[in-house]
Amino acid sequence: MRGLIVKHAWKAICAVILGLGLYAVVVRFTQGLGASTNLSDEFPWGLWIGFDVLVGVGLAAGGFVVAASVHIFRITRYEEITRPTILTAFLGYVLVIVALMFDLGRPYRIWHPLVMGNPHSVMFEVAMCVMLYTTVLALEFSPLVFAKLKMRAPQRVIQAIYTPLVIVGVLLSTLHQSSLGTLYVIVPDKLYPLWYSPLLPLFFFLSAVAGGLAMVIFESFMSARAFGKRLEQDLLEGLARVIVVVLAVLFVWRMTDLHGRGSFGLMFEPTGESVMLWGELLLGVALPMVMFMIPRVRRSQGGLFFGALLTIMGFILYRLNVAITGIARSSGVNYIPSWMEFAITAAIVALGFILFGVAAKHLDVFPAEAAPKPSPFPSHPTTVPTPRYAGRGLLALWGILLLGFLVFGFTTRRNNSHADAAATASGVVSGSFTPATAVPALRDDMKLATGEDSPGVVLFNHSSHVDGVNPTCVPCHAGTFRITPEGARKFKGEDFHGAEACGRCHDGKTSFNIDDDCEACHTP
Amino acid sequence: MRAGFLVDLSKCVGCGACTLACQEINGLPVQASPPKLSDTTFTMISTQNQVHIKRQCMHCLEPACVSVCPVGALQKTELGPVIYEEGRCIGCRYCMLACPFGIPKYEWENPLPKVQKCTMCFHKRVSKGLEPACTSVCPSGALKFGDRDALIREATTRIEANPGTYVDHIFGVKEAGGTSVLYISPVPFAALGFRVDVEEDSYPKLTWAVLSKVPSIVGIGSVLLVGIHWVISRRMMMERMEHEAAEHRRESTTRGGDRS
Question: What is the pTM of this model?
């Protein structure tokens, strides 16, 4: 009974999220990105790029790491988890492409990079790799679909090319996982020095390996709970050990890089950025690394799950710090995503869970557990209870992160005003410069086109119309008398008397009335 | 000729002629004094420390926006202007992120938005041998259109001939690897809101240093992966064969024992 309620509650939550997301999509495509997001000219990339794309692609990295382990390094015992991992990766990439359809101004041109590619553009490289790798993942996953449809021939073809396929997949992944970091190599003055580095591609690659593997662990727990499948705890523990090594390399390398570029000290300045960096490094890198180093923790279900979760959160924080936190100061604006940006992001995540569930139901995603393998662990139940303290831990962690965001928000605001004050204080060179007022290059007298019953020719004289102390062209040229030949409007005769022309100022108030004295302008 | 224009901030009177000319030629809504650059304002005059500053695209010699555009919608023309081909643009906004001067603007209210910026009147004027609308209407002599090298010489002459009038710096000679638009000023550029912290070298070089390695990564990577696969698979095969051979021996010895 309780299970039934929980199941329906989840469905209801999913429905609400999808509904809100759909509303946001409608607003996006009827009123534009300005109405649906808090993006601006100062802050052109926000949550959709930071989370949906950078995080989405990175967390799908488990796909290529596990595929490489099984098919290239031949660590065949991981074969058991390849199918759900490849499925997760494939869905991840599909959802990244879906997310791009909302973020791109002209989504129907998403194929343009294929035919108009600019090889100097990192984005072009990412686009090509993502497109090709999504195809590779689809092929890697296709045997399950073919098996369902009982199509033998294509299954055999895929089987024959599987290893080359995996090799191509690994290469493509290596390229674009790192290239997502390269995207930011061109903004040395916009990205805060705690994150900017020419080594961003390497850091993005390493963190994607760690984050992707953590995602495999997370996904196994979710599947074990949702579909009652066996939890491959021995395998996951192996992944946890790999994560330790990757996180350690990442941690040391980032520290030496910060030191090498002279930005080490920035970590100890009381700024919002340093708070966010510490959050990222301590909670998302150091803590899970230490946890996974302790065998007792690594072998407990709770420890494994919680450690993976921390790694994932650290990964998410790293991507968001690069995409949002690190850009905030130089942009000069405080970007907080709109509820519609959150709604679409949440809807995409929900869609991911739903699609995974559908695939798991209809396809043979979890290979039959025919012969239970000998395991170093005591026998575990077939259904896995949620690690008891994970829920509370998750809540606490998000609390800490939220606190970090708030601190960040306040400190950057204060810092911005500091910076402004400093600029005005140091920059003023008052008194040394007198602004120019000379306008030597005014046009010669212009003979205006006269009508048939004109009392005489009008010679327009620029210098008598321009204020010598505060010269401005705007009163006459803003829309009335056009300033370029391309924009010129043809006035003739009486037209000049109207409020659209001379009459606008010569109305008896601003200047003498046009009807009072013909000879003031017309020379007979 | 590599076209460009020189903005002499000591001469600008802030009359607004350039702004209006820009609005006219680009068919933009008429605004007497637009507050900032936007999708409907490609140039404007801001006043800081009593100096009137005309702002617009700098038309970099090696533009970051051009290098990052995945579809080549932004291009540096032979003549100098950096132009935008709307029909290619997918609206990814990478140009906006990458531009060190924050120039490209977006049509945020348009469901299918374009990027907008100054094109130095390339299509309507410069490609036909004319000067851009803004420089053509400037009455104060603050704007001068011409060959970039000649303009640098002229700017140097002006600075040298009028001691005390100018800060000894031509903004745009080295900034961001050089720009087609050049500025000379009576007040330090830092006090006028100029991005004085931009790199001296060109921005595209930063990403090209990484991107140019892609072919070798693919080459070396594929050989390495195939190699690893081969070594490990062969070792596994050998192990299996040895195992089978040992099994076979054991079988034959037990069989032999039976026979005796």
Answer: 0.89
